[in-house]
Design goal:
Layout (H helix, E strand, L loop, with lengths): L1 H37 L2 H18 L6 H26 L7 H17 L5 H25 L4 H20 L9 H8 L1 H7 L1
Helix pairs in contact: 4-5, 4-6, 5-6, 7-8
Length: 194
């Protein structure tokens, strides 16, 4: 009788042990799906993966080294701007003038080089300094004068747009030619940039 009790208690325990790994796997995938569906950020990842798959299926060259290099060149500026903008959004603020700062900086660099005959690296430093001063002014107006960042940066956007149009006279400027850059930066330095 004791043997019947032991055999009856051992046989039901053997069946759940076999089903447990299957349930654990189902539980893992369903919990992973629930985790992603609860996060708003997951939609961005899912859409990005779907777009990568679509474009790779459309063109086999999309994820080739040359295709990725081209993609990174076009995305770099937006990613740099977005990295700074995210910090503001985390704090509950916004900066609408970043696009105009991004447009003004190359004109400052060009004017320093073309009109004042300064080396390119000095023009880059001047453009970065002017951009930092614009950010400081936006920050001081928002913090010290208690003006909402939306209003502050919207006003700065229009101001910088006017300054950029005045400096450029409404026309794009020419990029320095290869020979000019070689003279200014040195052949080895320019070769490293390319």
């Amino acid at each position: 009788m004791a043997e019947d009790t032991v055999s009856s208690t051992t046989s039901p325990q053997a069946e759940p042990e076999q089903e447990e790994p299957v349930q654990a796997r189902r539980g893992f995938w369903s919990s992973l799906a629930r985790f992603f569906l609860r996060r708003r950020e997951a939609s961005i990842a899912i859409i990005a993966i779907a777009l990568l798959a679509y474009f790779q299926l459309s063109s086999a060259n999309f994820l080739s080294p040359d295709g990725v290099r081209t993609l990174f060149q076009f995305v770099a500026a937006t990613a740099i701007i977005a990295a700074g903008e995210v910090m503001l959004l985390i704090c509950g603020e916004i900066d609408l003038s970043v696009g105009q700062v991004f447009a003004l900086a190359p004109f400052i660099m060009y004017l320093a080089y073309q009109n004042y005959n300064l080396p390119i690296w000095v023009g880059i430093i001047l453009a970065l300094l002017v951009s930092a001063v614009i950010g400081l002014v936006n920050g001081l107006i928002t913090v010290k004068l208690k003006v909402p960042s939306f209003i502050t940066t919207l006003g700065m956007l229009f101001l910088l747009n006017g300054i950029t149009l005045t400096i450029s006279q409404g026309f794009p400027v020419l990029v320095p030619q290869l020979g000019t850059l070689n003279e200014v930066m040195g052949h080895a330095a320019y070769s490293e940039i390319i």
